[in-house]
Specification:
- By secondary structure, the chain is an alpha/beta fold.
- It has 2 domains: 339 residues, Glycoside hydrolase, family 3, N-terminal domain (TIM Barrel), CATH 3.20.20; 135 residues, Rossmann fold (3-Layer(aba) Sandwich), CATH 3.40.50.
- The chain has 19 helices and 14 strands.
- The strands form 2 sheets. The protein has an 8-stranded parallel β-barrel with strand order 1-2-3-4-5-6-7-8, surrounded by 6 helices. A 6-stranded mixed sheet has the order 9-14-13-12-10-11, sandwiched between helices.
- Helix 17 links the parallel strand 10 and strand 11.
- Helix 6 packs parallel to helix 7.
Length: 495
């Protein structure tokens, strides 16, 4: 491969790897193919010191081999999509922040996340999610969205963005042109958004237009088909009419455009990673994400080289992408911060306060106050399970955690085998889990027997469907210890 061509094409990829240290295979990839950017996941994060050293080593390696500092990306949205939560502390998910009704909370959490990222050397957060949660059957967005309306998604997304950017971290709004009104997870298949263009401008596109006009520094694409924007029905990531015609020309956006992961089945199964990446760059993406495999990055680089030689990928376009990338890399700030900036007691207090504020009592039977919690309370429900492939929360058994915290009864999934005649109240935890119907049925049986029974959704309000009016209904938004701590702190205030 030609050296200049390799260097330019290498700037157009961001590649991930497994482990807490840089594998030799990855070092060789950077040396040979001049890969210019990297993305990190929870699988790369062990401790503050380890992560800071890893980012410094990645920066030095890529700068030495390419002449440019790398974009070091991580997806720190809050809630279930968190690469650092297990070492920095959990943060409220976007929907919980939106439930507080206060945009200042979005700014605050965004700034805390930005400080944590910059302290270790991560300079791009692939957040905020700007998708409207307009389809309750959407499993890939869910509580990653700030809300159901375009205005709320825009207002809270912009506040979160400003918090990140105030800490010196590039924000990346996603998933353009919108992934909220889908019932298919693009990690697994190709979703379709089939609505008129006018409706798209009023809903899906609205938060992205607002973010572009207010200085967001980058966007990430969505692997979705939107026929009203591209009648050829190409996935948006691979669509010139959407990525160049709409975003660059019609909206006039000049920030960085990252693709979503090219291993996702929505595009990989149709085209293969190599061809999909080529099409994404030709359509207008600046940087394509290959999240897992050095070998796939290698084959993609060789494929791109052939595509340029064959005229299927314009070298002029590649140079244009690299000029934009270089311009934005000149604005990157060096790492700044210590362990105290990464995870402080004040951060934990703020996160808990916001989480308590987000709790919602949606229904109280005949307006009655919630039953008290104590040693004769039965806790039941499933253990934590990722709501979607995008989620990466730590394993947690919520009923067991609450029973231990209060000295109550751990009823497992459905409370079967517990002495129901000896309990004063019951609390069921609900989440997108195969056992959800069984938990709902157990709660209904308990309520029918006269046991004061409360249902707590640790996801969206949809989990509270199919429950009788005799059950208290609460939404706590996310399945982690932060939400459970908020329940204990805020239970008696939910009236």
């Amino acid at each position: 491969m030609d050296e200049e061509k390799t260097r330019l094409l290498g700037q157009c990829l961001a590649v991930g790897f497994d482990g807490f240290h840089i594998p030799e295979e990855y070092r060789a990839l950077v040396r040979r193919y001049k890969i210019g950017n990297v993305l990190l996941f929870r699988r790369n994060v062990e401790s503050f010191a380890q992560l800071k050293a890893l980012c410094a080593e990645l920066n030095a390696l890529i700068l030495q081999e390419t002449g440019c500092p790398p974009f070091i990306l991580a997806g720190e949205e809050g809630g279930s999509v968190s690469r650092l939560g297990h070492i920095a502390g959990a943060t409220p998910c976007p929907m919980a922040i939106g439930a507080t009704g206060e945009k200042e909370n979005a700014y605050l959490i965004g700034r805390w996340i930005g400080q944590s990222l910059r302290a270790v050397g991560i300079n791009v957060d692939t957040a905020p999610v700007l998708d409207c949660f307009s389809n309750p059957d959407n499993t890939v967005i869910g509580t990653r969205s700030f809300g159901e309306t375009p205005q709320k998604a825009a207002d809270f997304g912009l506040a979160f963005m400003k918090g990140l950017q105030s800490a010196g971290v590039m924000a990346c709004g996603k998933h353009f042109p919108g992934h909220g009104d889908t019932a298919v997870d693009s990690h697994l298949a190709l979703p379709l958004i089939d609505k008129p263009e006018e409706a798209l401008w009023q809903t899906e596109l609205f938060p992205f237009v607002q973010a572009a006009e207010n200085g967001i520094e980058s966007f990430m694409t969505a692997h979705v088909v939107v026929p009203a924007l591209d009648p050829s029905r190409l996935p948006a990531t691979l669509s010139g009419p959407i990525m160049t015609g709409l975003l660059r020309q019609k909206m006039g956006y000049q920030g960085i455009l990252f693709s979503d992961g090219m291993e996702m089945k929505a595009v990989m199964d149709l085209y293969g990673i190599e061809e999909a990446t080529c099409r994404a760059l030709a359509a207008g993406c600046d940087i394509a994400l290959i999240c897992h495999s050095a070998s796939q990055a290698k084959s993609t680089m060789e494929y791109l080289d052939r595509a340029v030689s064959e005229g299927r990928l314009s070298m002029r376009d590649v140079r244009d992408r690299c000029r934009r990338i270089a311009l934005w890399k000149q604005k990157l700030l060096p790492p700044q911060g210590t362990q105290a900036d990464f995870s402080s007691p004040q951060r934990q207090r703020d996160c808990l306060r916001v989480m308590v504020q987000s709790l919602r009592l949606l229904h109280a039977p005949k307006g009655k106050p919630l039953p008290p919690l104590g040693k004769r309370t039965l806790f039941l429900g499933p253990p934590a399970r990722p709501a979607s492939i995008a989620s990466d929360g730590a394993p947690l058994n919520g009923p067991h955690w609450l029973a231990q915290a209060l000295g109550g009864v751990d009823g497992g999934l459905t409370g079967e085998g517990s002495a129901w005649d000896e309990i004063d109240s019951a609390v069921g935890l609900l989440s997108p889990h195969p056992g959800l119907p069984a938990v709902q049925q157990a709660l209904e049986c308990l309520a029918q027997r006269g046991v004061p029974t409360a249902a707590v959704s640790l996801y969206t309000v949809k989990c509270l469907d199919n429950l009788p009016e005799s059950v208290w209904k609460i939404c706590a938004w996310q399945y982690d210890t932060l939400a459970l701590q908020a329940l204990l702190s805020g239970w008696n205030k939910l009236q």
